[in-house]
Design a protein that fits this description.
Elements (H helix, E strand, L loop, with lengths): L2 H10 L4 H5 L1 H30 L2 H18 L15 H32 L14 H20 L3 H25 L4 H19 L2 H8 L6 H9 L2 H27 L2 H34 L1 H4 L2 H35 L4 H20 L5 H4 L3 H25 L3 H26 L9
């Protein structure tokens, strides 16, 4: 046994060793490499960006992105999920349907924004003219998630990895350049985010993916037939995903509504500095795990893989979590600047949540892919209800932003642990055919 295999066996148990040499482990390594480089770029740019832009700018960006994320659920009516498991004769028609839907929903979003702007300006007063960039971000994001799943289906994982690096680099360069050349405003951050998403699309449209796209059929009867075969996705998975996104973005939006924009901005920057890297790294594992679930008959026991990944992430994330809890306020001011003292206090209370997220996120699509959309819908609904109740208590008790974020961290941590238990349970052989 090689030295690396002996170390792996000692640290993680014999169940981890097969993963190191499997195709699944190679796929995970490719995705993690891209994610680590991308987040390294973002982290290096963060001290510069935090000194150019104010907490209010980041708070506004976070709120806009929360709206985009909510609308993204319906960008292609969840048919993008079917790309991972569609039959060969359905695949091209489903991809074509998803791409067409992305353009249609973006146009509809522009129409809605325009109507609200002229007829009900009070509803979007806090966003200002930035709302007209929401349809652009929605289209770029929708196309990105379709191409991401197509890359997974075609096993073009290096394209995803390079796209993530390009997205992060473009965002950093454009945001810093916009802040230096012109007056720093939220517009610079929004345009940088759009540029990053466009860069991801550019790098994803290469090689076999570009060849596949060039051979797509026109929308026709077979396209509607393919969509009809997966009609349960918009009917059941889309409501579940919508509730999921509401639960995920609820806190960032409510912070802006209940407290000052600065509180929302401090939360947004910490979420971008710590939460986003954690999610991106874990999502890289999630994409490899999704590929495994689609081919589980030939790639081994998914329950064993789940335990191996969770055990590894728990070990890898423990020390960073402890550092954030002990030294978060000091590090935040040192890295970000003196205007971000509140962000440092948020680091301390959010670190346990990011740790739990790092462990559980690789399996966040398990219930959906395995056909247990009902369980996923119940979990999403329960989370949204609990968070809504939390915010009701916050408002009635006049709690401050730090206590609010602490409650959010604790409640969300428990809910994510419940989700991973459900995911592990439905992967057991006894649950096959019971859905």
């Amino acid at each position: 046994m090689s030295l690396s295999r002996r170390i792996s066996s000692k640290w993680f148990g014999s169940g981890w060793v097969p993963d190191i040499v499997s195709q699944f482990a190679k796929n995970t390594a490719v995705m993690l490499k891209g994610a680590i480089v991308a987040q390294g770029i973002a982290f290096l740019a963060l001290p510069v960006m935090s000194r150019i832009y104010s907490p209010d700018d980041f708070g506004m960006l976070q709120s806009l992105l929360a709206v985009v994320t909510l609308l993204l659920v319906g960008a292609s009516l969840r048919f993008e999920i079917a790309i991972l498991s569609a039959k060969p004769h359905q695949l091209r028609h489903l991809v074509m349907a998803c791409l067409a839907l992305c353009f249609v929903t973006s146009v509809l979003a522009l129409a809605v924004v325009s109507i609200l702007w002229f007829l009900m300006p009070g509803i979007i007063a806090k966003f200002g003219a930035y709302v007209f960039l929401i349809p652009l971000l929605l289209m770029l994001s929708g196309l990105g998630q379709v191409l991401n799943n197509l890359c997974l289906r075609l096993k073009a994982l290096p394209l995803i990895a390079r796209g993530k690096i390009a997205q992060s680099g473009t965002y950093a360069i454009v945001s810093i350049a916009a802040g230096v050349i012109t007056k720093p405003t939220t517009l610079g951050l929004v345009l940088a985010d759009a540029g990053g998403r466009a860069a991801l699309l550019w790098f994803a449209l290469k090689g076999e993916v570009a060849a596949f796209i060039r051979e797509l059929p026109s929308v026709g009867r077979r396209t509607f037939a393919a969509c009809h075969a997966y009609r349960h996705l918009p009917m059941l998975s889309m409501p579940s995903a919508l509730i999921n996104v509401l639960g995920s973005s609820f806190t960032s939006v409510m912070l802006l509504a209940v407290f000052q924009a600065g509180d929302a901005g401090n939360f947004a920057l910490i979420d971008r500095a710590l939460g986003v890297p954690v999610t991106v790294l874990a999502t890289a594992q999630s994409q490899a795990f999704m590929s495994l679930l689609a081919n589980r008959a030939s790639e081994g026991d998914p329950q064993a893989k789940l335990l191996s990944i969770a055990r590894f992430n728990a070990m890898a994330g423990l020390l960073p979590m402890l550092i954030c809890v002990v030294a978060g306020p000091t590090l935040a001011v040192w890295i970000l600047g003196p205007d971000w003292a509140t962000a440092g206090r948020f680091v301390q209370v959010l670190a346990p949540l990011y740790y739990i997220t790092f462990i559980t996120t690789p399996f966040n699509m398990t219930l959906v892919i395995m056909g247990w959309q009902g369980w996923q819908l119940a979990w999403d609904t329960g989370r949204l209800a609990v968070l809504a109740l939390m915010w009701l208590c916050v408002i009635q008790s006049h709690l401050n932003s730090l206590v609010t974020v602490t409650l959010y961290s604790g409640i969300s941590s428990v809910l994510y642990l419940v989700h991973i238990v459900l995911s592990y349970r439905i992967l057991s052989p006894q649950m096959e055919g019971k859905r």
